[in-house]
Amino acid sequence: QVHLVESGGGLVQAGGSLRLSCAASGRTFSSYAMGWFRQASGKEREFVARISASGATTVYADSMKGRFTISRDNAKNTVYLQMNSLKPEDTAIYYCAAKPIREYNYWGQGTQVTVSS
Known about the structure:
Strands 2, 4, 5, 6, 9, 10 and 11 form a 7-stranded mixed sheet that branches. A 4-stranded antiparallel sheet has the order 1-3-8-7, with no helix packed on it. The relative contact order is 0.32. The mean pLDDT is about 95. It has no helices and 11 strands. The protein has strands at about 5, 10-15, 20-25, 35-40, 45-50, 60, 70-75, 80-85, 90-100, 105, 110-115. About 0% of the residues lie in helices and about 50% in strands. A hairpin with a 4-residue loop joins strand 7 (about 70-75) and strand 8. The protein is mainly β.
């Protein structure tokens, strides 16, 4: 079992930056791939980025490439999402998730990001 807690969300002006954190419990964090997802009001949840267990491989949704950076610190059981050049359309609840093998089985409660124009 993995418990995930996101933090770092808030209100920011367009063009600004935020860094989200996701703290995980459990001793198996370093063996899980991790992902960030987001869900805007009235829309379906969408993939943002993922990182391999070692941190060596990262993948981004096209609209986030060059603006967002996912990273992890396995010693701290934490995964991060650095978000730069934020746009109003980035407004959403951001969730982190852990993928032990093939599916994202564990999810955090989410953190709200609001970007004002």
